[in-house]
Amino acid sequence: MRMSRLLLRTLREAPSDAEAASHKLLVRAGYIRRLASGVYTYLPLGHRLLQHITAVVRAEMDAAGAQEILMPILQPHELWVQSGRAGVLATDYHGFTVEARGGTFVLGPTHEEVVTATVAAEIDSYRDLPLNVYQIQSKFRDEARPRFGLLRGREFVMKDAYSFDASQEGMKASYKLMYDAYCRVFERCGLEYSPVESLAGAIGGDVNNEFMVPSPIGEDQFASCPACGYAANIEAAQVGGGGTPGPAEELTEHHTPGRPGVKAVVEYFADRGLTSAQMLKCIALIDETGGGQQVVIALVPGDREVRVPPGLRAFEEADFAAHPELVKGYIGPMGLQSHGIRVMADPTVRESGPWTTGANKADHHVTGATLDRDFSVDEWAGLASIAAGDPCPRCGKPIELVRSVEAGHCFQLGLRYTDGDGAIPGATYVDEAGEEHPYWMGCYGIGVSRLVAVIAEAHHDDAGLAWPESVAPYQVHLLSLGAGRAPEVATAADALYAELTAA
């Protein structure tokens, strides 16, 4: 391409809404232009860059045995109802819906339902498994606050792959193939990355990994242990170690007027040397995952915040009014199961105590609350927030928190979309004995257009963008110096240009 013909206009100043270096540089260098909030046009340089990143992703997907397909952007809303995800379409996926003559459609934010229905119509024998299909497709999410240019937009390009296997062991093998392929993609794109343990969220499944790229403008953080290599998203990271149980105490009730909350109680018991870590924080939640509204109390030490599990939400004023047994600001874990309340607790709760906590009575707290004597726990889960310097759950050494950007995500979905509630009809195969079984699925996503920004964040300096050769829009910039004064220079440059183009 000759510069004289290239659609390119560079800007002296970055747009006022640009915060990230990648956003500023991509706009100033003439790669992208904003059409609306979170919506961008790729100019020729930006489109070539996107194509080259896509080529890297496509090559590694093909090498891992995945087959490329292209699924519709428009998805019937009924599919989301079948899978049980219609309720999270707006909250978790910020989904767009479109009313059309054929009914209500979703502008695809993700394609689990569509790919399961597609494969279910084609594959019915164990002989056709394992199968892995992928697409590179535009996605749409109505982000409340698009920011950082291509890092968080309303329209974006994504590679999503889906594996289908006859067994859990087969699913794990497919997952490993894709995990390794992702590592190669990010290495070829010149990125330093960390695969970290994470939560599945609305997509479902148990085992999953995020691929995080350290970045000063990252909206995520992950816990990293330099000593043993442990790495986990802060939503999934476990707090290691724990406190040391204190001497046994009797359960004693205290009048604490006007003292809701940890800080106020610690001040009230200042003469006892009480710390927030010795308080038991009890947070009321509503579990809506089963279609109903079960009350859950989450327990964490008082110096921690509660990480609310997917599918649960915090109590609102109306919920407290409907459950007078739970006194706002004075909730304790004692006797909750008798009211049909489920008690969840972070593992650190069993490593410390006795606890000071609410007495389930207005203006009252108790001291000496002891696990398995005064209260019991129905479910243990990683609920406590993690902080820099906490002990690593594997080796006990201090962990670090690393600010980062998510570049990819792999999930072991298991039977989430093929068996039980939320199964897509027909998502089964027949084994050698003629018996029918559900597919075991995996899901694997890379934000291809997001990688444009992620690579730009990692590969720029004071002079501007400096792309890795594997994705650069052009590999050679040929300059013809003095051609106006020396025609032979122009002739030689044209010949070299033709030779390089042909090569």
Brief description of this entry?
The protein is α+β, with helices and mostly antiparallel strands.
Please give a structural write-up.
It is a single chain. The chain is 21% helix and 27% strand. The chain contains nine helices and 26 strands. Strands 3, 7, 8, 9, 10, 11, 12, 21 and 24 form a nine-stranded mixed beta sheet that branches. Strands 16-14-15-17-20 form a five-stranded mixed beta sheet, with no helix packed on it. Strands 4-6-5 form a three-stranded antiparallel beta sheet. A hairpin with a 5-residue loop joins strand 18 and strand 19 (364-369). The mean pLDDT is 92.
The termini sit apart by 14 Å
Q: Output the structural class.
A: alpha+beta
**What number is the mean pLDDT?**
92
Poorly predicted spans: none
* Number of beta strands: 26
Rg over CA atoms, rounded to whole Å, is 28 Å
Helix content: 10-25%
Main sheet overview: 9 strands, mixed
Layout of strands and helices, then pairs:
Elements lengths: L20 H8 L3 E5 L2 E4 L1 H20 L3 E2 L5 E3 H7 L12 E5 L2 E5 L4 H9 L10 E10 L14 E11 L2 H21 L5 E4 L10 E7 L5 E5 L6 E3 L18 E4 L6 H7 L11 E8 L6 E8 L10 E3 L2 H6 L19 E4 L9 E4 L5 E6 L9 E2 L19 E15 L13 E3 L5 E3 L1 E8 H11 L1 E2 L2 E2 L21 H16 L1
Parallel strand pairs: 3-7, 15-17, 17-20
Antiparallel strand pairs: 1-2, 4-6, 5-6, 7-8, 8-24, 9-10, 10-21, 11-12, 11-21, 13-19, 14-15, 14-16, 18-19, 21-24, 22-23, 25-26
Helix pairs in contact: 1-8, 2-5, 2-8
